[in-house]
Amino acid sequence: MSKITAALVKELREKTGAGMMDCKSALLECGANIESSVDWLRAKGLAAAKKKSARVTAEGLVGVAINDKQGAIIEINSETDFVARNELFQKFVNTAALVLLNSNEQETSLDGLTLPDSGHTVNEELTNLISTIGENISIRRFEKISISDGVVSTYIHGALSEGVGKIGVLVALESTAKKDLLRNLGKQLAMHIAASKPRSIDQADLSQEDIERERSVLSEQAISSGRPETIIQKMVDGRMKKYFEEVCLLQQTFVIDGSSKVCEVIAAVEEEAGAKINISGFKIFVLGEGIEKKEDDFITAVASVSGV
Prior knowledge:
Helix content: 40-55%
CATH topology of the largest domain: Tetrahydropterin Synthase, Chain A
Shape: elongated
CATH class of the largest domain: Alpha Beta
Oligomer: single chain
Strand content: 15-25%
């Protein structure tokens, strides 16, 4: 039997990030061959990932990456907030965002993309991470945004390290204005979007279905007030105006000064720049948004453990 030295265990651990005892077991199984042991651990990691796949992942991080004309945003979830503070996890989120940014096409899956440092695919690296950290981890969603002339700006709220946090925003500004001016405006708009969470750029970008649904609800509310028909119509129109101001970015009140409309802020910068500025798109990811978290009943949990 080949001798399993501390140096071999250390080397395998550095290659895989797996636990010391797992590395020793792998080396014993594989006759102290490092590469075979790496494969053995990856296979075990895959099995572990499958076991953990049913667990709810509502924590984790949102990551962003930008260059001159593109931006990428990704949400990667874990089971606990503790994992979000793990440096390996943060590095994976950062790297995945960069790989997405540098990919040529609008990706529908990251599985085939390769990480530059390790040479692993994103999916392989995810499997290794699950094995190392011991929690289910999943790539929930990702998007890219681009411009032909202008800037893509970003903002991370609740940042735990550079480019990763709890809320991520990308905003694309198409313009021939000076880049420094656009970056400053873009940063402020991204911060505003993180706080106000608009659903569209303008009223024209909202789906007709959403508008009709909102109008229907407001009409029912107005009718139940018992007011005359002429008053009801005015009530609905007024409430729809307020609805558009709440969900449409250009019509929202700018959070930074608390008084101007976003469209007015952009108009002021356009006048200073002597050039038109168009918000061609934005993306906002709020960590865990829409995921139903399981709320354990404390009394029931205690009873189940104690056998009551």
